[in-house]
Queue: 2 jobs
Job 1
Amino acid sequence: MTDDAAPPTRLDREIDQSKPSIARVYDYLLGGKDNYLVDQEIGDHFKVNLPGSVAIAFTSRQALIRGVRDMARAGMWQFIDFGSGLPTADNVHQVAKRYAADARVVYVDNDPIVLAHGRALLATDKNTTVIQADARDPKSIRDHPDVVRLIDFDQPVGVIFSSILHHFNDDEDPAAVVRFWNDQIPSGSHVLITHFRSGHNPETTAAEQKLQATFGRGRWRDTEEIRVLFGDLEVLEPDIVPSAQWRPDVAAGDAASVGSSGRELTVWEQLIVTGLARKP
């Protein structure tokens, strides 16, 4: 959708292309094509004016992949992915199905373009779906027919909040959203959170100001504020750490291995952290 010569689709005409989308900005930063000029302008601000900041998007994505892997290895075969964003390589259902062929996944996002592309991708997959909903309204999601159809809340569930809770301002009470789902899932379930972590430095301030000015949201929190989001859940090893250092797959030689290779993390790599918790 970044090809100016391509004719506009019906979806293009239905979407307000004058307003940037968080999902589409992430798509652009990750090298995707499902974005518009207004999204690219925001992404280019981070690329050009905050060099190195794109590492936040890449290391959080890699941590998500490893998180789904480890949840599936721990017995999770059903997942709810909040703020799922646009399809890319190694989506949650693809990673999960490597370990559980019958894995069930519900993707949740409030961007209509995510709904359209997700449904096209999943048209033949009866165990995976995408719904358009606002994560700040958890009850409507819990009662959604596709969630009722696919997710058995008597069995362990993997709940994913990857790079979404930091887009909730404090008055939107992200801890209450997580708590709602903690109350729905049974013992043995896992909750994954990837979140901006404040470095109390110019980089944090600059990035936060840009997101607030653009979207009216974007909140960097410190480690203890992020820990509060997990509520009474048991945070598993290695605790809440930079995403690049969270359970790195050194054998694969991916970007996650930087933390154990002896190289010091960049300031941007330190500004995104991951934690995985278990419901006792």
Job 2
Amino acid sequence: MSHSEFFQATEEDSAGNYESAYRLYDSGVEHFMTAVKYEKNDKVKETIRKKVAEDEENAKMQSTLSQAILTEKPNVRWDDIAGLEGAKEALKEAVILPIKFPHLFTGQRTPWRGILLYGPPGTGKSYLAKAVATEAQSTFMSISSADLVSKWMGESEKLVKQMFELARKNRPCIIFIDEIDSMCGARGEGESEASRRIKTEFLVQMNGVGNDVTGILILGATNLPWALDSAIRRRFEKRIYIPLPEAPARSRMFQIHIKNTPCLLRPEDYKQLGQCTERYSGADIATVVRDALMQPVRKVQGATHFKQVEGPDRADPKRTRRYLTPCSPGDAGAIEKHWTDVEGDELLEPDLGLADFLKSLQTTRPTVSDKDIAEHVKFTADFGQEG
């Protein structure tokens, strides 16, 4: 590999053009291995081959990891998240402020290096991470520890090292690790050697001697915080409990998920939905809304009669036209008809109202149990902080 080729490869690498850099490195390796053929000393040959193989492996890993860097912002703003004000403020303190006002964090006042978001499933931990990625002016790497462990068994500790190396090259950088308990579970008798090596490497990288973690924040998320290795848990200096949403936040979630879908819900209806969804997570409410949005479609499918109504013309909203909409057999002007006999452009779907959401609530139950909540409350009392 000539000096110019090497310089070009490292330039591409530093600029974040990892695919181009990898091709240049790979080409250089081929040229180098050709030159090795003419080396007469066998020990030197073997040493060079091992070094080249290692460098090539590292380049492949960094190329794989580079795919985890979000090049486009997820477009989730703080205001898009209902409730969780404490968690949002803690994340702003840890992520946004140090980047925007670095002069505030000098001397002994240093930013948090590790934040753990924990709580029952579906409470918005990953959504908070998306808001961080949107709002923070920094590189954002999103890693699934479950994928990391399953796809790279035997190589996972090397990938952890490369993950931190890539973060150092792209500082300031946030590494978001979802399901971190899969990678850093508590140690036990049945633990594999590979699992021990992963945790050891993670500990070394987060707080090891000679490893500069300035400008790097590890943001972890887990539904099972008590399953984390105690040494790993201590590396997450800030541990934030993401609880089930309160009634006002649940009302706001219904509004967020319905968005601009036409419906007849009034402010008092949203309040009622928030009050009657005790113990529902954000994910549960999203499921309720999706099911409720299908209720008008089900009315169309199940209808035996349709009637003509006036409505705004879809092509020109300033004009009105006649449509067919499902109705009861006893309604005035009811026509016996099956939905398959209605033309696509003449159907007007039924209004979406409170009754549709209440009907969906009867079949969509909360997924978080009292036992789950009790375990998280106990962990918070022992190790965490309220979000």
